[in-house]
């Protein structure tokens, strides 16, 4: 009896109870007939189908793993497709298999127990993810309504899985698992399903003294709500990562033009410049994405998206005449074979920022500092945002190097963090040993709401304010060589009124520096607009 | 709470197993009932009333039918059951649909009420109706104890996503189930395989399909021809792997404690005709419609006209059951057309030419899934025209090529997973184990490790699914 059940077809579901010492209960019918029915669920309808087996063979030799996953040990079909059995399992074999199954059950039980206990260690549930740079789902507040309609418990389940202990390790393993799903092509396109607005033709004859006459339409619809940090974050993330061209371990982001966002952005900056007319000179620098600065024209055209050269010209055509524009794309393209942008991160390198700085100096009539004269710091092994998003193996094999140039005169700065606390920091921080995805933070202590750098080597009273996103971080250190005081505002983290700030500190030059994808985001435009009124 | 979530796995199911196997045997049903009610209440405790209420009605109707001899009284019992349960199902599932249609025709009513669909109502309603019908037809004895019937209807293994278990299948198991060590092992393995099938294969296919066919967004209308085909192929794999994985897990968990549910899928993509497909796909549903609608209407032993009527009713209802939207109804009727075609025209031919039948059936099923996927007819029409190169978005592109290459092994793996190749390999390995002690050892080790490896890979995949890098804070 015992051998029989194992032998019959090796199919563990159609079994007769294993142990002969456990006879079938008297009140219970033997199970076997039921399983015969299970094997041919269609038997009651019409003749049972036997057509299936011809196709299994055409699937070719099955790998071990898919076979195990695909297994449906539910049907007794030994009589159908399988070759005839040789002989029964003997007593020794059955004993061996029984013990193997017992070990299998123990291993399962142990894994479940470990998982259960680990998950119940509330204190081990992380609140943030270093890996992803985000706050994890918080444990929900209890409300009676939320409990009754199920949303409370659903949130608890979400919290549990999002903050499972050791999640970053598990997530990393999960990403490795995904790597096994296929081959990583040298050239690829991720995302790209974004519809860009049509870029309007440039009209150079547009009257320059009428800054955007019919543009501030959004304002007619009442005050635009100031976006929250999270809303802006989500929007920006979507924009930067919406289309990525990946080639040879480097990613290039594609730009998609949005008419409304660009109009709002340029209107806001024009507003600031008009308000500061006679007080300060306002400059706008739109930083292109790396695709426009580096890729071949032919490749660029094949990727879809909007031509950034034309888009930046369009940006610049919309400004009030009080805004002085500094085009940098041509200069960057002249150096396109050099290391102006990172491969694994969407930012530019200090070299890319230096080229923009040279163009700014040209426009301003300043003498740019000689790059070779500056002391450098170098940090290897940088795997930035593109890598975090894509987990591309070619990137991991060839990480970026961050080079930073310490300004002449000083390396000290002061910033006020989100809580308003004053913090002493360095213009160029030694980030050796930092997390490999955070090395861009070497520049001006990362993104801080408001920072001030005083250069004691310059005493001409000159001052500049840079209103920037993170692209400005690599740019600011060079300005320290030319100005006595450099003020930096990261508009995403503060609500300070920019016009009042400039007047209060008697700043003479204001530089708005934004990446094209960010400047083309509705939330960013709305935020800047709220700070220049 | 879904089976493929960490909280189900490591809190709910782990505690369930621990408690179930520690309490004295006589309390095991109570343990299962309490866990099942908690499981159901997780998705919204107020709907627990509905589940308990429907079971109460069915329990009473069952007893009412069994206690009366007169035919008219028996009939009254079944009428009450059907009116009450189908009425509730119609209210919760179809009110909005019907009112939406009425509103579209008559411009009234203007306000269509928000009604949330209680989890699993489609499944347990059918289970309870089948129970009362079986009592009516004397196929089973009425269950005198209310909470035992509640255990049948609420059992968390199958309550919210099937299979639609017949009462006759488990009637005996409720009071007299026995579990052998082989049951525990085999059930556990089935559960783990199902979990991996869902967490690794189905979820990954879903992610590719959703990337290629982002429903409800403008992105969908930018997809090209190759993208639409590939997206639908991944959807076809996803829907089978996902659904059958749920059945695997339900059957496996039941088996671990001694319930023996019937199979719900039998490698449907190996079908050689549409009729064959429906004998292999969601068997518990098609057999429900067969036994409780088609055969009572007269089945096929009647005039041709009546047969067509019966089939139309069954396939209309099958479509409607899947969702309150016209596309599901068309999906049901789409299959009706091919079933009638097979019955009256091409049946003989495809029986002779199995290869042709197989290809034909897969193509029909494939386009069936296109109908099934898009509730929005603008999207549906657009995707169909795009598949035949009529949308003007081009034949292919780098993005589609990238996704194909990045998921090539997954695709092959999933296709193999839809066939019985795995089962055959398992049988062959068992046979080889008899040939030498070393093969036996390998076989034993595989048997011992397969479930736990599937479990671990699933946990990794489930944790990985929450990967959501937020680059903004690293700017």
Automatic annotation (TrEMBL), chain A:
The keyword Membrane applies. Coiled coil: none annotated. The chain crosses the membrane at residues 103-124. Signal peptide: none annotated. Residues 1-61, 68-87, 198-226 are annotated as: Disordered. Residues 201-210 have a biased composition (Pro residues). Residues 1-22 have a biased composition (Polar residues). This is AlgX/AlgJ SGNH hydrolase-like domain-containing protein. The lineage of its organism: Bacteria, Bacillati, Actinomycetota, Coriobacteriia, Coriobacteriales.
UniProtKB/TrEMBL annotation, chain B:
One of its GO terms (molecular function) is acyltransferase activity. Keywords: Acyltransferase, Cell membrane, Membrane, Transferase, Transmembrane, Transmembrane helix. It is found in: Cell membrane. GO terms for biological process: alginic acid biosynthetic process. InterPro entries: Ac/AlaTfrase_AlgI/DltB, AlgI, MB_O-acyltransferase, MBOAT_fam. It is a multi-pass membrane protein. This is Alginate O-acetyltransferase complex protein AlgI. It comes from Parvibacter caecicola.
